[in-house]
Design brief:
Distance between the termini: 63 Å
Radius of gyration: 20 Å
CATH architecture of the largest domain: Orthogonal Bundle
Strand content: 5-15%
Number of domains: 2
Structural class: alpha/beta
Bound molecules: zinc ion
CATH class of the largest domain: Mainly Alpha
Strand order of the largest sheet: 1-2-3-5-4
Helix content: 40-55%
Amino acid sequence: MSWKRGLAFFFILAVLAAFPYGPLFAWSPVHPGYTKLNFKRADVLYPADRPLDPAYSNVDRYVALAESFHNLRCSKKITVVACRDWNDCLRFAAPFLGTQRPVGVTIPTGTVIFLTPYIYGGWDAGGVLRHELSHATLNQNRSLLSVWRLLKQPWFSEGVAGVMAGMGTTAPGRKLVALPAPNFIAAARHEDLWPSFDAAQQKDWRFSYTAWEFFWVRQIQLRGKEAFLKFESACTSEPEKCRADFANIYGMGLRQAVEAYQDDLRSGRFVPADQTASTP
Ligand SMILES: [Zn+2]
């Protein structure tokens, strides 16, 4: 029976190794090579050999901001992992990244946020944190099935995360995921916005992301926070009905609302504020 004991020993070793060096890194009590910063609402794991981005020290304030924007409690403590390199990131977060290579990803339970090495390439860490904390707050208040279904409605989930990302000052020399407002307005003059809302697949992801963000800025401006929260609650509880819920709550179809928003952008009735300190 010694081969069985050998197998059990090997299995235990593999599980233990998965903690500090593998997919359980975020949950591990030890984090070799990383510095752990403890805040009230979140812990931040940061590569020990990298200069710390001051944005992380605002994490408690950003969680509170997400709670007040979404009118939801983010009751579980969050772990933010800033990966040192892609090697680490793929070992820690491969199942959550799939084939995508974003700047950040929030796991479906809303308790862990992974930031990929793109974060060191000029993106505004505060903006990315606010974006992911919007996902985390919504995810913590929904079923895993609803989180999965909402992936097909990025015009809502990514749009509102974008609104959160824009709620702060961009660090000097850093850029937000959204295009600078003047560039977007210029592009929206000749580019139709509806295709970005019509399907989950995007031909220009950054353009669509900006279109969704400013769409929600505009809806909240026109129809207020109460209608927004009503829609948020309906859409997140049954994501397959998001479009029908939109028509019910806003009194017009999504397509009609997107066309009105595009008209307002083209005529200058709606000029989104530029949140970027610098042009990427
Ligand atoms: Zn997102």
